[in-house]
């Protein structure tokens, strides 16, 4: 976000800007980028180490060293008719940062709200560095890059006006592993939150169900991610740091395995259909419930009890999950 000198005149001039900021900058979803293209969907020295759940290089062993600059291609300038002013816009990764070459959304609004209180949208452009032609006057320019945004007033008069916006933003790309094996896409997802997991405050995610290989564009700073492998209890929380102009790869390691449940009349026999299943901890907490002949459930490492209900009868068995050891758990109907 852009800040301006404080004075009575400046404050008066900024009132409509502040109103527009409140409308534009409220979190409304996530921004993601695939491995090859951007599309819309969203630092402190005291950064906490993510611990053993996250592997990589740099920053306390918590994440892979940022490597790829988030730059992407520029559009030709239009002709400027008499009585008009050309406004050239560009953005960079913070002060002294390199230019942002793609993934930007520019919006230009009237400087004063309409009778209903809304600001009229005059121009919109997704070029890296667009030049728009407008009548002389005052406007409000908003730029979005993922979940990073900036807004400020612009006055057009005379010759071409160039405005550069500072967007200290970086990218976050995540994947999960069990041991040395990469978790297949579609079996794991990530939620991203502001700040550290150990801080009090708003616990709503700013990006939800991010898939493996997608890139979330975020303002520079500290975040924590919640990695969900499957839909049972394999969950890992990790603090990470996003740096301006860098793509940070994070690998989250889960201690879990995929277990297939079967109710059989004899060991190695056919699974019985129409079986209702419950997976419980030794203390009796229900982890997962399902119905089927052989449901598959991903469980964190540990001890469990499987309860099978079929034709009014109840059968159960205790079992143990070992990290990376997928397999069947048979409950014999006796």
Structure summary:
The chain has 334 residues and is mainly beta.
Question: What is the percent of helical residues?
Answer: under 10%
CATH class of the largest domain: Mainly Beta
Question: Which secondary-structure class do the elements indicate?
Answer: mainly beta
Task: Calculate Rg over CA atoms.
Answer: 26 Å
CA-based shape: elongated
CATH architectural label of the largest domain: Sandwich
**Main beta sheet:** 7 strands, mixed
Please tell me the overall pLDDT: 81
What's the domain count?
A: 3
CATH third-level topology of the largest domain: Immunoglobulin-like
Counting DSSP H or I runs of 4 or more residues, the number of helices is 1
Number of strands: 25
Uncertain stretches? 1-14, 17-74
Q: Give the N-to-C terminal Cα separation.
A: 67 Å
The string of secondary-structure elements, in order, is HEEEEEEEEEEEEEEEEEEEEEEEEE
Amount of beta strand: over 45%
Account of the protein in words:
With 334 residues, this protein is mostly beta strands. It folds into 3 domains: 8-26 and 70-74 and 82-166, Immunoglobulin-like; 31-68 and 169-253, Sandwich (Immunoglobulin-like); 256-332, Immunoglobulin-like (Sandwich). 5% of the residues lie in helices and 47% in strands. It has 1 helix and 25 strands. Strands 1, 2, 3, 11, 12, 15 and 18 form a 7-stranded mixed sheet that branches. Strands 6-5-8-9 form a 4-stranded antiparallel sheet, with helices on one face. A 4-stranded antiparallel sheet has the order 14-13-16-17, with no helix packed on it. 32% of the residues are buried. Mean pLDDT is 81; it is low at 1-14 and 17-74.
């Amino acid at each position: 976000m852009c800040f301006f000198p404080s004075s009575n005149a400046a404050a008066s001039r900024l009132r409509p800007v502040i109103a527009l900021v409140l409308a534009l900058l409220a979190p409304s979803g996530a921004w993601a980028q695939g491995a090859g293209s951007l599309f819309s969907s969203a630092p402190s020295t005291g950064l906490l180490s993510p611990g053993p759940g996250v592997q990589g290089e740099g920053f306390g062993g918590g994440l892979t060293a940022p490597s790829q600059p988030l730059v992407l291609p520029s559009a030709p300038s239009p002709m400027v008719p008499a009585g008009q002013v050309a406004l050239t816009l560009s953005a960079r990764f913070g002060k002294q940062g390199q230019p942002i070459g793609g993934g930007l959304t520019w919006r230009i609004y009237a400087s004063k709200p309409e009778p209903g209180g809304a600001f009229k949208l005059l121009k919109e452009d997704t070029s890296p560095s667009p030049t728009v032609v407008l009548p002389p006057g005052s406007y409000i320019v908003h730029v979005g890059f993922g979940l990073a945004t900036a807004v400020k007033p612009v006055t057009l008069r005379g010759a071409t006006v160039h405005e550069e916006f500072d967007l200290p933003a970086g990218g976050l790309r995540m994947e999960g592993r069990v041991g040395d094996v990469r978790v297949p896409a579609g079996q794991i997802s990530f939620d991203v939150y502001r700040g550290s997991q150990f801080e009090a405050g708003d616990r709503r995610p700013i990006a939800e169900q991010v898939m493996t290989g997608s890139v979330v564009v975020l303002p520079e700073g500290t975040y924590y991610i919640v990695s969900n492998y499957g839909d049972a209890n394999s969950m890992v929380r990790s603090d990470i740091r996003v740096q301006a102009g860098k793509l940070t790869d994070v690998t989250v390691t889960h201690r879990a395995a995929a277990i297939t449940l079967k109710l059989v009349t004899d060991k190695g026999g056919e699974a019985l259909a129409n079986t209702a299943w419950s997976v419980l901890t030794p203390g009796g907490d229900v982890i997962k419930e399902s119905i089927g002949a052989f449901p598959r459930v991903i469980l964190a490492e540990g001890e469990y009890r499987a309860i099978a209900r079929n034709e009014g009868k109840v059968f159960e068995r205790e079992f143990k999950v070992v990290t990376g050891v997928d397999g069947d758990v048979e409950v014999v109907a006796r």
